[in-house]
Amino acid sequence: MPQVVEPPSGTRDFLADEVRRRRAAFDTISAVFEHYGFDPVQTPAFERLEVFAGKLGDEAAKLIFKILKRGVHEASGEADLALRYDHTVPLARVVGTYGSRLPSPFKRYAIGNVWRADRAAKGRFREFAQCDIDTVGSSSRLADAEILWAINEALQALGIGDFRFLVNSRQALHGLLEAYGIAPQLGLDVLCSLDKLDKTTPEAVTAELTDRGLSSDTAESLVTDVTSPDTDRVRKQLDTTESGRRGLSEVDRLLSLTTGLPEGRVVFTPRMVRGLDYYTGPIFEVLAEGYPGSIASGGRYDGLVAKLGGPDLPACGGSIGIERILATQQTKATTTRGLDVALTVLGAEDDIMRLAAHIREHGLRTGIYLGSSTKLAKQLKWAHDQHARHVLIYGPDEQATGEVTVRDMDTGEQTRLPLADTAAYLRDRHATR
Amino acid sequence: MPQVVEPPSGTRDFLADEVRRRRAAFDTISAVFEHYGFDPVQTPAFERLEVFAGKLGDEAAKLIFKILKRGVHEASGEADLALRYDHTVPLARVVGTYGSRLPSPFKRYAIGNVWRADRAAKGRFREFAQCDIDTVGSSSRLADAEILWAINEALQALGIGDFRFLVNSRQALHGLLEAYGIAPQLGLDVLCSLDKLDKTTPEAVTAELTDRGLSSDTAESLVTDVTSPDTDRVRKQLDTTESGRRGLSEVDRLLSLTTGLPEGRVVFTPRMVRGLDYYTGPIFEVLAEGYPGSIASGGRYDGLVAKLGGPDLPACGGSIGIERILATQQTKATTTRGLDVALTVLGAEDDIMRLAAHIREHGLRTGIYLGSSTKLAKQLKWAHDQHARHVLIYGPDEQATGEVTVRDMDTGEQTRLPLADTAAYLRDRHATR
């Protein structure tokens, strides 16, 4: 009895339609990033364990898949390699490894799997694709804006119609805390609470802030101001502090450099908080109608490349949540790629092989019956299962006259024509679809 | 100081040109296999360790990369997962996992990395791509022939001009041993010696066979017969035994089903031996002018899927040695993908962002200067480093008149034209290249 073994927990097998769907999405994103002058980079699936040492937070470090030493060292139970956790640590490593051999600035995109030993759950995987785009070595605001433009175009190309970039700035968040007189030691907690405003009610967040030690007046005006669709009050507050003004100017520069995007596509969102120990400048996330959570995010992270072991270079970038997008779009019908032409086999096999070759020369997807049945009905069932558009019948009758019967599987119509004309006939029928 | 860390031993970083070159090769192969009605399958990078248990030979088993258990189990030093060693074990697992939900026969191709902890050496990697094509569930000789046709077309599409398929049969090898009166216990050793005939002289192989216990008459006539370009003598010998006749008939069927291929493309090669505990029927390997070793190989392996833990189904397939092909082709010049249009930045940044967007709408690869210099000369150097075909200059002069200067980097020619006409002008210039 064969064992029936599933793929490992949290991983997936992708069969035909799904591979094609994923490949098409990755190709779409690549093509857009290429147009923006970004170059692809592919790093190995694993890195030396030391590359990760101290680079990831404690929580993240627990999630890396470690690879056991090999040969005589296997018995030690020690690891020396680890599967990549994201594309950012390898990016920092590559910038360190190749240094001045890379273009400056280094604009690269990376599309590929990463592995995290996260608790497996619906929609959460241990092997999943990330699509990252980053510019290392530029402090220009144009670099930040370019990331938004490129992600905007990629999302449009993926068929996502209604989406918007929420933008904010790490500096603006600093300024916000200062302007509302929040004690530095409360800062992180307060921002964590504000971050919940997209999932919970303003009242609940206000209550949480009060619990955290803010006066109810401060909590209430902070929440009211940051959730107001009109950002004027927050802007006035930010204007009272140095970081606030710097943050506002970052945000306004980004808004100005993206005025070419559709109206309302980029929105200053003062309550938006992202990875605080990561980003240093403008930050963004993308929300889309009909998609859960954010489908892209990013920002400027000037200190990170050095922290991850690379040289001290400014950097900004973003990531498209491609798994989330693919999972949501999956509910729409996936089309199966069937055969253009299916050849039944009723003897004369050498002729069949040559005929198939001629048909393929016209770019048609062509399959030959490989089963053991000599019954036409059974072979037609196979052709039907293969979603074949045309079936060729070359039985003793046809062989005697050097002809082929072509059956249109949509209409059931059958046409008999000379063997030599078959490939051209099929080409014409498929060209006009 | 940043650490300079190389990628792990035996693995490679692929930068822009190399990623594109590899991607193009994989796309080429995919397109051909799709035309033959094969469907893509992607399995996870790792499998449960039990999937490999007892499935690989001792030598192979030593080469698998094992993944340490996680969390509280990490301290045990035990592994529960392993990186995939090839695409065949995962294929058997997939056939077992999905059973009747897969089409029958199941024609699939797999292109992707596999990992082997082999001693790193020039041209031998620990992470490398394999391109496999297999048909599971068909005993038809058409299935064997189809694999040859598909690989033939893929190799042609990869630009390999001069190559040939050496074909033989496991049964013919059995028959050969029998016909020449070789004791069964010597069979394996004798075949191992014959397998060296493509690398060493007939004399050396004859001597080795004599050492292994064959009479010098037998050794000499065996080596003479199997190396003769004329296969008549071997055919006559094979005709004297049951396995020999079965093997010959397999080979002749394959030759007959591939007569549509160029003359001399498929050659019966009685001395050709491949993986004896693997293949059960026809076998082949492909040699090409200018390429070292074989660049593709395969055959029928009816017992293997069951042995690897899948259901007991007949199967045949082949694999393209894509790393070897890519490495050999690498010596030819690789073209760098430069920018079609490089935009310098001399103020008016919002206009620049919009202008870049218009140009990209015409499908041109467009980059914006992201450095900190305001000097045109420095920005032109950047454009040159980016292999830009055209550079746009939009300085204070041009801004005052609403014009742009377009510089052709090949000719040095400069043209000044209205901002609004720039995108269309560039489109036309690139369309005519």
What does this structure look like?
Two copies of one chain form a homodimer. Chain A is of the alpha+beta class. Chain A has two domains: 16-329, 2-Layer Sandwich (BirA Bifunctional Protein, domain 2), CATH 3.30.930; 341-431, Rossmann fold (3-Layer(aba) Sandwich). The first copy, chain A, is 39% helix and 19% strand. Chain A is built from 17 helices and 16 strands. An eight-stranded mixed β-sheet of chain A has the order 1-5-6-11-10-9-7-8. A five-stranded mixed β-sheet of chain A has the order 13-12-14-15-16, with helices on both faces. In chain A, a hairpin with a 5-residue loop joins strand 9 (282-288) and strand 10 (294-300). In chain A, helix 5 (141-157) packs across helix 11. The two termini of chain A are 46 Å apart. The model of chain A has no long low-confidence stretch (mean pLDDT 92). Chains A and B meet through helix 1, strand 1, strand 2, strand 3 and strand 4 of A and helix 1, strand 1, strand 2, strand 3 and strand 4 of B.
